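This part of the workshop introduces the protein records we will be handling. A record pairs a protein's sequence with a compact description of its fold. Comparing a sequence with its tokens is the quickest way to learn the format. The record below serves as our worked example for the rest of this section:
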Amino acid sequence: MSKIAVIGGGFSGLYLSSLIGDPLIVFEEHKHIGLPEHCTGLISYSTFKSLKLPLNLIEGKYYVIRVYFNDFMRNEVEIHVSEPILRVNRVGVEEYLYYRAIDKGARVVLGQRVRKLNPKKLIVNDKRYDLVVLSEGIIRYFSRRLGLIGKVKPVYSLQLRLKGEFYDKDNVLEVYVTSPTPDFFSWIVPLGDTGDIIIGVAATEKNSLNKRLRLFKKILEKKGKVKVYKELKYFGGVISVGPLGKLGYGKILGIGDAVGLNKPLSGGGIYPITYAGKVLSKIILGYVNGVISDPLKEYVQALKPLILELKYSHKLALAIRYRYYTLPKTISRLLSLMNVKLVIRNFEYDRHSSLVTHVFGKLGFVKT
């Protein structure tokens, strides 16, 4: 019987394990599933259905993204999505996947960090395996040592979940590409009828995050965007914004943050992981059953559409963020002078590269 080690029991490791079950053994360094919390938890409705998650994990539903470049009160860009964006309870999602993996026969070892990996002999913590999956997340301890991914300038996030009121009763998300985060962006995610709101900031300077978030909260309150009753909890972490690395080395295969499987514009990883997880699970089962002899070759071949999408999206993200969003801010100033707002319709949330399609052919303008 084949033995397969999965290094990392975050979303990617647990999702893959929930699809395969036995003979996987998952090593997770933390003692509690889903913690520490770091993700905003926004996914498309299609991805939610693909994951086959229960409805009680949905905390918000959104149809419009408003983007602000130069003014906190006047949004120059309004994006209407082709299907709802959902905010899911990320800790709850990972707990659900954990029990689904256990039910399928996978073994999940909590509180055990993998300290040794021999890539030639496939020895993990002194035991030999037939296949190893790297799903170690943004820490990338082994993926860097194997040359799967290089050093990139990290983006750090800090978020605050609070009890309060959001000024707009419509199902909208708001993104701010302006002070206090000119090198990335800030956001507001209202959580439906719960009365909770998530506000967050991201920047390349880690030490300034707390100050930036406090300033963002203060501005939002002053402008009447949110009314804060109580601060509930802070959370955050490192955002992976590309570029995509190599998908494996020999009989070691990578998935998720470990190899840069993320949407470069926002750093979201649930959609790429869901796509890659389904592919990888079939390849692993084929390898276990003796049908596939070179799993890495099959993995790379099967992921070609996603690889092309992420590489293209990364180039798009670099162009958009060039010198603190110079191009988008220039466009927004022109729109402001023209007294019009840019409206993008039927935007595919999972495919950021579709922005280019909209820019060249599916835009609308409305007087403001």
Summary: The first helix runs from residue 11 to 20.
